[in-house]
Amino acid sequence: MLKLLQMTGQVMLLWIIYWLGNQITVITGLPIPGTVFGMVLLFLLLLCGIIKLSYIQEAADFLLKHMLFFFIPIAVGLMDWGAMFYEHAAVLTLAIVAGAVLPFFTVGIITQLVYKEDKKCK
Which residue has the higher pLDDT, 62 or 73? Predict the structure, then answer.
């Protein structure tokens, strides 16, 4: 019973941060999803030590472990869009490949540059 209450409290804390992220989006009017603001807010709270990792660890582990279940409704909904995917397959394939390859190489190049600069400073 105590474990259930602890998990509920942790999920509520994560939900409050999610809600605050959505409120930031509404208040600022920026075209950035509230979930992004929520993740940045959670990162900053963890970084500053305001929220300890132990405050959310079990709920976060549980949600990550069962993340696949959150994608099932999306996958089922995409089945209705089969004709559109077939019609625009080339553009979608290009976007997916570019969206995967460009960040991969960009991070690699930046990492090499930072490593070379770090090596020069020593």
Answer: 62
